[in-house]
Amino acid sequence: MESVMSFLYILLGVIIIFVVFKFVSVWAGLAILAVLVLYGIYRFIPSYYEMKGNQAYASGDEEACRQWYKKAYDTGRTKVQMKTSYAYILLRTGYADEAEKILDPIIRVKGLAPEKKNLAKQQRCMVYYKQGRIDEALEEAMELYEAEYRTTNLYGMIGYFKLISDAPLEETTAFCEEAYEYNSDSRDILDNLSICYYRSGRYENAERISNELLKENSDFVEGCYHGAQIALKLGKIDKARECLEKLAECRRSMMTTVTEEEIEKLRREVDGNGKNSAS
């Protein structure tokens, strides 16, 4: 609808310029053309900044992406979709409090389309998590879920929140299996389910899910780390080392849930078990 309206505005501008040139004067036509061009630039600037931000993100420069998105946001002429994207970038670069300031006004807007408001609420759940407010994060995420809001990201988020909270393992596993039925290609959903099986001692099932995950997501920090844990538990030391070696190529962000200290500790465990096996 927005693209249709933009086309109609452009068409109307062309018609006005044509009429002025033909029936008024060339100078009046040039003046109107100049005004329309300047207005077009004014309207396009936020989109230009957003485009530059997307290019920076694609190249792996998330800090530059954040700065470009901030420029777009500061114009005061950005749409809700761009604002929620900016909040996500803020989360990835460690600015959870700033992300909350972006999302709260969106959620308070009356009459906003439910899908846009729900997306903002979903993002805010991650804000709460990054702020250490895990109970609030899980509560709001479950409110969305119980209101029949279903997305791959929400399923992955709730599964993870349950894993790091006091939720019973059996309940968490059932939810993660439901998430797997919803989307068996999601790396977060696969990772959560592999952890559930690992914690319940179902190591072969955990390995099967981990293999599915790593087949298409070999650059996923959490997937490689948990894959190494599972392989170690099964006594597959070479496979564990292979998973750990892949971590060097994985892209990190402030959203990464595995620390370098945890990785180093696991590496020492794998090396120690390898020596024991050799001896």
What would you note in describing this structure?
The protein is an all-alpha fold. The radius of gyration is 25 Å and the shape is elongated. The protein has 14 helices and no strands.
Outline the secondary-structure elements:
Layout: H1 2-23, H2 26-58, H3 62-74, H4 80-92, H5 96-108, H6 114-130, H7 134-146, H8 152-164, H9 169-182, H10 187-199, H11 203-216, H12 221-233, H13 237-246, H14 260-278
- What does the average pLDDT come to? 88
DSSP strand tally = 0
Helix and strand sequence: HHHHHHHHHHHHHH
Cα-atom radius of gyration: 25 Å
Q: Distance N terminus to C terminus?
A: 70 Å
What proportion of the residues form beta strands (DSSP E)?
Answer: under 5%
What is the helix fraction of residues, given as a range? over 70%
**Helix-and-strand structural type:** mainly alpha
- The biggest beta sheet, please? none
Outline of this structure?
By secondary structure, the protein is an all-alpha fold.
What key attributes describe this structure?
mainly alpha, 79% helix, single chain, 0% strand, 279 residues, 14 helices
